[in-house]
Amino acid sequence: QVQLVESGGGLVQAGGSLRLSCAASGRTFSAYAMGWFRQAPGKEREVVAVISRSGRSTNYVDSVKGRFIISRDNAKNTMYLQMNSLENDDTAIYYCAALLLNSDRVSLSLRSYEYWGQGTQITVPS
Predict the structure, then answer these.
(1) What confidence tens digit (pLDDT) does each residue in 44-54 have?
(2) Which of 22, 48, 68, 122 could form a disulfide with 96 if both were Cys (CB 3.0 to 4.6 A apart)?
(3) Is the Cβ–Cβ distance between 4 and 33 less than 8 Å?
(4) Which residues contact 53 (CB under 8 A, 6 or more apart)?
(5) What is the pLDDT at residue 44?
(6) What is the dihedral of CA 102, 104, 110, 112, to 10 degrees?
């Protein structure tokens, strides 16, 4: 198993930036594909960005392309989400999640992720 803890959330004005971190403990971090997901009030949880085990492959939901950057540091057992040009529509609880994979690829399938953090709130006032 792997345990995940998000940090870095908060309130930020539109146009501002935040960086989220997801610290992992337990089994070998580099064995897991990772992802950031979010859930806004009254909406279903959606994928935001995903990254492969090595970090060489990434993918993003269209609404954050060009604004968010996902990365990971396997030596530090940590994944990051740099969020720039934040908008009111980015307001949500952000979760990190892990998926044990035997290949270096990404997964956009929310339901396939096995381990989840508790989430961190991002609020961007309109």
Answers:
(1) 999 999 999 99
(2) 22
(3) no
(4) 30, 31, 32, 33, 101, 104
(5) 97
(6) -10
Nearest alpha-carbon partner for 21 in 93, 94, 110: 94
Contact 57, 13 (CB under 8 A): no
pLDDT value, residue 27: 73
- In percent, the amount of the chain with pLDDT more than 70 equals 100
Tell the residue number behind the tokens 């908008």, with chain if given. 87
State the number of CA atoms in the 13 A half-sphere of 91 facing the CB: 12
Residue 96 has pLDDT above 80, yes or no: yes
Sign (positive/negative) of CA torsion 88, 121, 85, 4? negative
Residues in a beta bridge with 95:
37
Torsional sign, CA 64, 66, 68, 69 = positive
Indicate the length of the chain as a whole number.
126
User: Hey, CA dihedral for 90, 66, 47, 117, is it positive or negative?
Assistant: negative
